[in-house]
Amino acid sequence: MARPRWTKRPQNYCGSCGYSWYPRGSNRSAGCPRCGSRHVKLGVELFFEMIAAAVMITARCVVAATLAVVSAMQWLFRSEHRRRVADTVSTAYRKMKAVATSALLWFGNWLIEMKTDAFERPLVFVGKLLILAVALFLVCVLGAYCGQQWRG
After folding, report:
1. Sheet of strand 20-21: strand arrangement
2. pTM, to two decimals
3. Is 102 exposed, middle or buried (0-12, 13-18, 19+ CB in 10 A)?
4. Is the dihedral of CA 74, 77, 79, 85 positive or negative?
5. What residue ranges of the chain have pLDDT lower than 70?
6. Under a CB-based contact definition with an 8 Å cutoff, are residues 19 and 8 in contact?
7. What gap in Å lies between CA 30 and CA 5, rounded to an integer?
8. What is the pLDDT of residue 54?
9. Tell me, what DSSP letter sits at residue 26?
10. CA 114/CA 50 separation, integer angstroms
11. Burial class of 46 by CB neighbour count within 10 A (0 to 12, 13 to 18, 19+)
C-alpha cells in the first residue's frame, strides 16, 4: 500500500505586509513574494505564539491575583499581631513569587520547545500534547471535586 503524500506545504505569513501563501520547494520561503520582507513565519508558529501569549497573560493574571490576596492579608492583619503575621506573610509571599516565577519560566520554555518538536520530533510533540490534555483533565476533575466538597 502506497503512503499518502502531502499535497500542501505549511502556509507562510509575512510579518511586514500580512500576506499569506503556500511556498514551493521548501516549507519556509526566504522572503515574502509580495513585499520581499525576510520576516516570514509558518502558520503553526503563529498558532504556538498565540497559545504562549494566552498562557503568559493568564499566568500574569493569576500571579497578580495572588499578590492582591497577599496584600489584602497584610492590610487586614496590620493592627493585630503585626510583626509576627507580617513576617509570616512576607516569607510566604517571597516563596510563592519564586515558585510561580520559576514554574512560569519552565512552562514557557516547554511551550517554546513544542514549536520545534512539531517539525523535528513529531512523537515528542504528540506526547507533550497528551501531557497537556491529561493535566487539563486533572485540573477540571480536581476543581469539580473541590467545588463539591466546598458546597457540602
Report:
1. 20-21, 12-14, 40-42
2. 0.39
3. exposed
4. negative
5. 1-7, 73-86, 89, 145-152
6. no
7. 24
8. 82
9. S
10. 13
11. middle
